[in-house]
Amino acid sequence: MNLAVLLEMACASFGERVAVRCEGQSLRFDELFSAAGAGARALRESGARHAALLDVTSPAVPVALFASAWAGLPFAPLSYRATDAEIDALLARIAPAFLVTDAERAGRLAGRASLAILARDAFLARVRSTPAPEPDWDMDPEAIAVLLFTSGTTGAPKAAVLRHKHLVSYVLGSVEFGCAGPDDATLVSVPPYHVAGMAAILSSVYAGRRIVQLPHFDARAWIELARAEAVTHAFVVPTMLARIAEALEAEGGALPALRALSYGGGKMPLPVIERAMRRLPQVDFTNAYGLTETSSTIALLGPEEHRAAAASADAGARRRLASVGRALPGVEVEIRDPDGKPVAAGERGEIHVRGEQVAGEYLERGSQLGPGGWFATRDGGSLDAEGFLFVEGRIDDVIVRGGENLSPGEIEEVLLAHAAVADCAVVGVPDEQWGEAVAAVVVPRAGASVSAQELRDWVRARLRSSRAPERIEFRDRLPYNETGKLVRRRLRAELAGDA
């Protein structure tokens, strides 16, 4: 199935509903369908081999996504935060391309060979004033639907390949068609080049839910927009939720229309989700874990599991609030040791996953699926006896101290339980005696006072002494990227340089 079929179904079933709204602009589902068809015609006439978008979120994003599917071209949303040199390199990899971007960049990039450029407003005006062709898209499920460039830690970013079959499998396996009510609205504040941004568009269209877009995240602006649009559903990353909860607490306010809030894209600190659940008791919280290479979510901790864990007096059951839940139907998860052998429940290792939605493929490198179709995520974690998945972070982030593997996430969780700690990050730094030493960067709560020794003693009392940070620095903030992920490598480099 082609992604355009999802939009066609929505258009036929609830075409008069508003599909997307952003800063005064809106498109109904029938208008979105027509605009996508006109966009497909423009893409074909340009002779491009890829459709690209270099911009913040706007109605141009769903138009370009479905237009690309209709035209049979891969859609490549690029990071608008990348440097000029990085953007040049990415554009060279997908040339010849049809690029939709902001007005300033459109003028600056004009005249480049192998690049047809339209500014966002000009693109939207064109597709809204041009008649759409009759549906004639290719139904090849193996065709590439989306290319997402990963934020490479070393070297050039990898281009993750998501084919129509992967994204359609994700949508059909996680969303019921037309399940949204006529007044339902989802607030999308993640950037379009994040897999969650693509998943939000596809799943909302299939559900028939209005998409409310926030081009730049700010907690106060998010809250005001959620109230103004009577937002019922939303997706945020953990750092966003922490700021939203803090802003709501500061004003003593609430979000009466909000019914469901999903979060993911990074480790959720236990105090943050507990605070959010107290502030928004009527909201159904869902923790969604997935990767770009798995077409978004592969495991969920649902609303009832949140409430059961939060209310439990049993430490093991309560700990599940820090898990990402259980695998979706049709998805299998295994934890494997360094030799690739499955480990027992409760043991740590690398998370492996397989299923119809798992792509595990890169443009220049081909498929990275192993025997049996399993994909090695490079995330570390464990499964408990009932299949709840606990994600500890990237395998590369594990600290090896004197031959012992230490999980930064485990130490961070203990530090965050201290009343004076607002945020923290734990990394390994070079050490002559142990190979690596445990270092922590701590952001204290406003008005709180705490010493490094007090925090060491706090960790030592709750974990083995080898996990107590030998080095603790206090800072005003931690480095997060625009999708809310901690840039741990930057901290590691900074601390190693000071060692």
Give the tags:
499 residues; alpha/beta; GMP Synthetase, Chain A, domain 3; 9-stranded mixed beta sheet; 4-stranded parallel beta sheet; 16 helices
What does this structure look like?
With 499 residues, the protein is an alpha/beta fold. The protein folds into 3 domains: 214 residues, Rossmann fold; 107 residues, Roll (Luciferase, domain 3), CATH 2.30.38; 101 residues, ANL, C-terminal domain (GMP Synthetase, Chain A, domain 3). 35% of the residues lie in helices and 27% in strands. It has 16 helices and 26 strands. The termini are far apart. The model has no long low-confidence stretch (mean pLDDT 93).
Mean of the pLDDT scores?
A: 93
**Order of strands across the biggest sheet?**
2-1-10-9-11-12-13-14-15
Output the CATH homologous superfamily of the largest domain.
Answer: ANL, N-terminal domain
Overall structural class, as computed from helix and strand content, comes to: alpha/beta
Main sheet summary: 9 strands, mixed
Any idea of the CATH topology of the largest domain?
Answer: Rossmann fold
Q: Which parts are unreliable, with pLDDT below 50 for 5 consecutive residues or more?
A: none
| Name of the top-level CATH class of the largest domain | Alpha Beta
Can you count the beta strands? 26
Radius of gyration computed on alpha carbons? 23 Å
Q: Gap between N and C termini, in Å?
A: 55 Å
Query: What portion of the residues fall into strands of 2 or more residues?
Result: 25-35%
Helix share bin = 25-40%
CATH architecture designation of the largest domain: 3-Layer(aba) Sandwich
Query: How many individual domains?
Result: 3
Shape: globular
How many helices? 16
